[in-house]
Amino acid sequence: MFSRSHDFVVDRGTFNYAGRDVNISMNEGERGLHILYGHTSPSAVFNAEARFPAPLCHPGTREDILRELKDWVKQDAPQVFPNDSSICWLYGPAGAGKSAIAQTVAEACANDRILAGSFFFWRSDSSRNNPARLFTTLAFQIATAMPELRSIINSVIMKNPNLL
Q1: Which residues of 22-142 form beta strands (DSSP E)?
Q2: Which of 83, 85, 80, 120 has the alpha carbon at shortest distance from 100?
Q3: What sign for the dihedral angle of Cα 26, 32, 38, 42?
Q4: d(CA 29, CA 46)
Q5: What's the burial of 141, exposed, middle or buried (CB within 10 Å: 0-12/13-18/19+)?
Q6: How far apart are CA 164 and CA 37, in angstroms?
Q7: pLDDT per residue as tens, the chain (164 positions)
Q8: Residue 24, strand partner residues
Q9: Is residue 57 within 8 Å of 30, Cβ to Cβ?
């Protein structure tokens, strides 16, 4: 919807994108979120049109790791992994199915309404291979998923747009 767009302002707008990537309703006082969106990578989220069809685990496969990750996600205080890790790093060789596992977990979390955000890197996509877009994309998704943080994130951006 906004690919290759830059240096523009839309006031009091409502955006709906049929590709499932964007559904933004901006209040007049949410210019910070609009600025933030301009620094995101909409094609990196788990349900982005650019990722269709997204890789998924086949039913009945990888059940142990999926159960372990879902348990880790749902813990109040992480206790599933050694050293009480609050970060889980999914790793393995190319082609091992890391993206399929992460996609399956992201979809399950979205279905359970506990997904705050997601980011899937891709080497050949200039917005998805840019680590600078990781935090802005997650911040925007968090502002959308958690209404109580929306005004805080908007305010922080308005006070210091150079953070982006």
Answers
A1: 23-25
A2: 120
A3: negative
A4: 28
A5: buried
A6: 10
A7: 566 665 555 555 555 555 555 555 555 689 999 999 999 999 999 999 988 899 999 999 999 999 999 988 887 654 555 556 677 889 999 999 999 999 999 999 999 999 999 999 998 999 999 999 999 999 999 999 999 999 999 999 999 999 88
A8: 15
A9: no
Structure tokens at 132: 């600078």
Q: Is the peptide bond between 147 and the residue preceding it cis, with omega within 30 degrees of 0?
A: no
DSSP reduced 3-state for 14: strand
Residue 62 corresponds to which amino acid?
Answer: R
Tokens encoding 78: 């992480």
Query: pTM to 2 decimals?
Result: 0.74
